[in-house]
């Protein structure tokens, strides 16, 4: 019985390690997928940003042309003003010049606004490009790590599976079945008894059960969580050890 319990303990250790390796193997691929998805989003955002900059720059260029032709018009009118003798005509042209200057001022305002917009968009683009580059490097690094971890885990799993097979072959069929069933429902099948309590569910075990457990002559399960209880050899009183 003692031997069977030790085997179950070892089986649980092995199962924990197997679970750990399997989790490790699947952890990075999930992160990698996540990064790959964010790269797709970033790529789209970068191309949107570039498009918006292109549009704004075109608009900016058009406004500059508008401004140049407006200023040309103003200059011409101002030259004409110098030669006009008729007061009425002079006043009309003066008004035209004034209006032209107002229009030119508005165009200047919108040129400045486009300039600011382009600067802002370029900063956003730069930030996104940097983010993209960093994510891409992160992705490559994680892929490398993931391969290394998988390689390690695969090697470890070969050994663990072999030992697991050996143990399950030496285990009593009913014990193994009990272990597998509890593991399926509880995650872990074995729980150490510490200070009179089951470490699986933290409930106190009746003293009679505790005594039976220390004798290690039968399989004792927790009345509450049904995990198989065990006591570490160093925690079994010497008297019992001698008895057995
Ligand atoms: Zn319990």
UniProtKB/TrEMBL annotation:
Domain C4-type zinc ribbon: residue ranges: 197-229
Alphabetized UniProt keyword annotations: Coiled coil
Domain called CT398-like coiled coil hairpin: residue spans: 11-184
The keyword Amino-acid biosynthesis is assigned to this record: no
Coiled-coil stretches: 4-87, 111-145
InterPro entries from the UniProt entry: CT398_CC_hairpin, Multihaem_cyt_sf, Oxidative_Scav/Glycosyltrans, Zf-RING_7
Name the record gives this protein: C4-type zinc ribbon domain-containing protein
């Amino acid at each position: 019985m003692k031997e069977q319990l030790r085997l179950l303990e070892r089986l649980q250790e092995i199962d924990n390690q197997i679970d750990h390796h399997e989790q490790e193997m699947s952890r990075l691929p999930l992160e990698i997928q996540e990064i790959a998805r964010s790269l797709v989003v970033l790529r789209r955002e970068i191309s949107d940003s570039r498009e918006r900059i292109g549009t704004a720059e075109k608009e900016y260029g058009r406004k500059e042309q508008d401004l140049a032709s407006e200023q040309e018009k103003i200059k011409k009118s101002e030259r004409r003003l110098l030669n006009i003798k008729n007061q009425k005509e002079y006043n009309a042209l003066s008004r035209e010049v004034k209006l032209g200057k107002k229009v030119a001022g508005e165009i200047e305002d919108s040129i400045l606004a486009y300039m600011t917009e382009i600067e802002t968009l370029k900063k956003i683009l730069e930030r996104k490009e940097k983010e993209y580059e960093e994510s891409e490097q992160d992705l490559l690094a994680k892929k490398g790590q993931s391969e290394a971890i998988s390689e390690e885990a695969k090697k470890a799993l070969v050994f663990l599976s072999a030992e697991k097979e050996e143990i399950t072959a030496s285990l009593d069929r009913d014990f193994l079945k009990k272990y597998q069933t509890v593991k399926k429902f509880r995650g872990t099948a074995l729980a150490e008894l510490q200070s009179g309590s089951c470490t699986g569910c933290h409930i106190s075990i009746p003293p009679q059960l505790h005594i039976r457990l220390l004798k290690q002559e039968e399989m004792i399960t927790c009345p509450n969580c049904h995990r198989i209880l065990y006591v570490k050899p160093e925690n079994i009183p010497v008297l019992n050890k001698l008895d057995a």
